[in-house]
Design a protein that fits this description.
Low-confidence stretches: none
Number of helices: 12
Number of domains: 2
Largest sheet: 7 strands, mixed
Mean pLDDT: 88
CATH class of the largest domain: Mainly Beta
Strand order of the largest sheet: 8-9-1-10-3-6-11
Strand content: 15-25%
Order of helices and strands: HEEEEEEEEEEHEHHHHHHHHHH
CATH architecture of the largest domain: Sandwich
Helix content: 40-55%
Oligomer: single chain
CATH superfamily of the largest domain: Jelly Rolls
Shape: globular
Structural class: alpha+beta
């Protein structure tokens, strides 16, 4: 199974919606800060033109961004973007575009910067899964390769998607806001794919899935989560000894294969429990538990509430 397959299964399990919130069009000097995001929200930034410096005080990340860079902050960290000059920023003024998003501008004619900012919202309880297995900061660069080997790459497709977002955000055509939000949801999937294909994939699930030897284990667990996988089976699939597999998996992910399998199972179970007429025993069996008591313990530990409590909460909010 390919990396795209496991990513498709993850995104089928997790509900992700995207929303464009503001287009920033500044001349230097400029500076803009974001507070910590609400639970289940992941802020994103798409640099359309110019350059910027992003700072995340919590992770001590300081990085220069240029046109084509896309930033996700999966842990919702407070962060700062600025032009890098250290000069006091020019005053900004805001107005709402006819389609519904905000435009933030200043009057400086110096070096120009253009950026789309929004957020992804992860449906509960899957926000925990996403935040646990993605890095604190994720930066992906798009490619404008028109041909050759890169033409079908995720980064090239990201460039095409960003081009559509740029066009939709500069006009007031009917349906523009809805189209931008739909494109934002696609942006999330393509960013994860591009990161997993990168030669310098980040830590966490994306690095693990892109690992030439460990990738088969990830794909197998997503493909057959109810199967009673053990470490030896997964190690043999990856052409490793059990001890080597356990060490590499833990080093890359920070968690064991058993932990990941349990999280996949509980994510699927949370979705199944929302379906009317499907009892807890049936859901337990679907995700690989012969003992309902063992399933309840695993679900409560992972999700933070019993299957019954989750079902009632999901139905009430749905």
């Amino acid at each position: 199974m390919s990396q795209v397959d496991w990513l498709s299964r993850l995104l089928q399990m997790v509900t992700v919606t995207g929303q464009l919130e503001v287009r920033c069009a500044y001349g230097a000097p400029w500076r803009v800060a974001w507070d910590r995001s609400a639970a289940r929200e992941i802020p994103y930034h798409v640099v359309l033109r110019g350059r910027a410096v992003i700072e995340d005080p919590e992770s001590r990340m300081v990085r220069e961004l240029t046109a084509g860079d896309i930033v996700l902050l999966p842990h919702g960290s407070p962060h700062l973007l600025h032009d890098g000059s250290g000069i006091a920023p020019a005053p900004t003024h805001e107005h709402f575009a006819a389609a519904g998003w905000m435009v933030s501008e200043n009057d400086s004619q110096e070096e120009q910067f253009d950026m789309l900012c929004g957020r992804f919202v992860i449906g509960p309880p899957h926000d925990r899964l996403i935040r646990s297995y993605l890095p604190t900061n994720l930066v992906v660069r798009t490619s404008d390769d028109e041909g050759g080997e890169g033409a079908g790459s995720a980064s090239t497709r990201l460039a095409n998607l960003v081009g559509l977002m740029r066009m939709e955000s500069t006009g007031d055509k009917a349906g523009g806001y809805a189209i931008l939000n739909a494109l934002s949801a696609a942006l999330f999937a393509l960013v994860l794919r591009a990161a997993s294909e990168s030669d310098q994939a980040p830590e966490g699930l994306l690095a693990l899935a892109g690992h030439a030897r460990l990738g088969p284990a990830i794909s197998a667990m997503f493909a057959e989560p109810a199967r009673p996988w053990n470490q030896l089976e997964l190690a043999e699939m990856c052409g490793m000894s059990r001890a080597t597999f356990v060490r590499h998996f833990q080093d890359k992910l920070g968690r064991s294969a058993s932990d990941l399998l349990t999280d996949i199972r509980m994510g699927l179970a949370a979705n199944e429990l929302k379906k009317p007429g499907l009892g807890t025993e049936a859901v337990a069996d679907l995700v690989g538990y012969q003992s309902v008591a063992a399933f309840r313990r695993a679900f409560t530990t992972t999700i933070g509430m019993t299957p019954g409590q989750w079902r009632r909460q999901a139905n009430a909010s749905g």
